[in-house]
Design brief:
The protein is α/β, with parallel strands linked by helices.
Length: 534
């Protein structure tokens, strides 16, 4: 009897049923940890100037849908259409239920929470879809670990809590690449249609994703030519491209009115603003409009955790050793998912290095690829552990890494994960000397509450960027410091790394004196000066 029970237990432990239960448990655990790191403190997290813009754009997008003024569904060159669908509709439903229809200082935080929560929920659905689809290529456990590695990176967490485009674009791009790869392996029309769908979703989120469309088509053509399957070229490329075009027109009502005008405007504005105009950055202490080649490598050094970087380097070394083998065979060469992602991500980084406009969060797109290589790297290290003692040491090290480099910063920085800097560069002050951290509305709620508590009433404030504070503080009491001098406000609030405005320094009747500051992650994020008469 005992032997029979033991046999049945062993059969269950190694059965497909047990394997299924383990997978369900891991997905449930992942879901729990995802929401624990996304939802708490979301209402009082970052309000970036871009978020204020996207609230206005989403509102206008919905107005365009409601009154069939389809031109209004074009709001920006990015173009952010999917973001506006995802967040504009829930906010509009809330407005209809509560009759609270106009944005103001008292309801902005509620509208902002609805927008962020909607975006978080969509990200969760996309991650679960990745967990369901990617195992068809690399297996469940490698997929699970890869998703865990980029999902719980502190800087990735911080970006996923923003009302912005980058994490949404990253997940949509990854899904489009997964379906495109499956379409190469298996001759199923459904994969081409899904590839076209997710390429359209990613392009309608951020126009830079047009590069993924070109990559998918040229990669497929190269594979079919080298594998001597020329007949598949027309079917694959046409079905993918037509699906892409169909879903773009379906989801972007502005194209129903003036398709050529709006598409050409998206690309012309992208070139004007992104490639030519640039964006002011401070790199290694130097202010520049184009930080050059080293900006993004330094961003990865400063913003990626050591846990990810160590695994990524190990995976890169391991993979480079196998490149020679892979390149000998056409099928292995083109149908190796790691190599496929490597080609795309190298192309993406090269394309992002060229434009003058460079921003740290643009590197979020390469996090899934870095995560996959990290999983490969750590797997290789585990395979080198021959004894039970070394394997135990390996797992203890991995556990310690996750605590020190993920869990600790997520607790310490709560809820300002966007301000994360890697301990590889030492303190946050050191990180700030390498790549300057933009204030970007971090801690804006805390700053408002601090000002109200310390100074009483509603003092008039001088700001560089009035949008974040103006969303939750009476707008009439906020003044743009480059236009208005210290006689117009009671307090001057400067974000870190911003110099004193020249009109304040040269004012003949008033001067300002530093009175207090707000510290976040060891940095003086906000400096508060009291205006005084000379």
């Amino acid at each position: 009897m005992l032997l029979e029970k033991t046999r049945r237990l062993l059969e269950f432990l190694f059965s497909a049923e047990r394997n299924k239960q383990v997978r369900i448990f891991l997905i449930v655990l992942f879901s729990l940890l995802f929401f624990v790191t996304r939802l708490p403190g979301l209402k009082t997290d970052v309000i970036s100037p871009d978020a204020v813009n996207w609230h206005y754009r989403s509102e206008q997008f919905v107005v365009g849908l409601k009154y069939q003024q389809f031109d209004k569904t074009y709001q920006h060159y990015h173009p952010g259409v999917i973001l506006m669908w995802v967040t504009g509709i829930p906010i509009e439903l809330y407005k209809q239920i509560t009759n609270d229809t106009v944005y103001n200082n008292s309801n902005f935080e509620t509208f902002d929470l609805i927008a962020k929560t909607s975006l978080v929920l969509v990200q969760f659905v996309l991650l679960i879809l990745i967990l369901c689809i990617l195992p068809k290529i690399i297996g469940f456990y490698k997929t699970f670990l890869t998703v865990v590695f980029f999902t719980f990176e502190p800087f990735f967490v911080g970006n996923s809590r923003l009302y912005h485009l980058d994490v949404l674009t990253t997940l949509l791009l990854l899904l489009s690449l997964i379906f495109a790869f499956l379409g190469l392996k298996k001759e199923k029309i459904v994969y081409q249609i899904l590839t076209g769908l997710f390429l359209a979703l990613s392009f309608l989120t951020k126009s830079v994703s047009i590069g993924a469309v070109l990559f998918v088509l040229f990669y497929a053509i190269s594979y079919f030519i080298f594998s001597k399957q020329p007949r598949r070229i027309f079917k694959y490329c046409m079905m993918t491209f037509l699906s892409f075009v169909f879903f773009i027109f379906l989801l972007f009502p502005a194209l129903w009115v003036k398709p050529v005008y709006y598409l050409s405007f998206i690309f012309s504005e992208s070139i004007r603003v992104g490639v030519r105009k640039g964006h002011s950055q401070i790199l290694l202490g130097e202010v520049t409009k184009d930080p050059g080649f080293w900006f993004y490598p330094l961003v990865i050094l400063v913003k990626a955790s050591p846990f990810l970087i160590i695994g990524f380097i190990a995976g890169l070394i391991t993979s480079l050793k196998k490149v020679g083998e892979i390149l000998k065979d056409t099928k292995s060469k083109f149908l190796n998912f790691g190599l496929y992602l490597a080609v795309f991500n190298l192309g993406y980084v090269a394309a992002m290095i060229y434009p003058a406009k460079k921003i740290d969060r643009y590197m979020i797109v390469i996090y899934p690829f870095m995560a996959l290589l990290a999983v490969i790297g750590y797997s290789r290290i585990l395979s080198l552990c021959r004894t039970k003692r070394t394997k135990i040491l390996f797992w203890l090290s991995i556990s310690a890494f996750s605590v020190v480099f993920w869990i600790y910063p997520l607790i310490k920085l709560y809820p300002y994960y966007f301000a994360y800097t890697s301990p590889l560069v030492g303190s946050s002050e050191n990180a700030n000397r390498i790549v300057v951290q933009k204030a970007f509305g971090v801690g804006i709620h805390e700053l408002r509450d601090f000002i109200l508590k310390r100074y009483g009433g509603q003092p008039k404030l001088g700001f560089y960027d009035v949008k974040p504070m103006g969303a939750i503080y009476p707008h009439s009491r906020i003044f743009y410091v480059k236009t208005y001098g210290p006689s117009n406000y009671d307090l001057l609030v400067l974000p870190m790394n911003e110099d004193m405005p020249s009109n304040v320094l040269n004012d003949k009747n008033y001067y300002v004196e530093k009175d207090s500051s707000l510290i976040i992650n060891g940095l003086e994020y906000w400096r508060i000066y009291v205006t005084k008469k000379k």
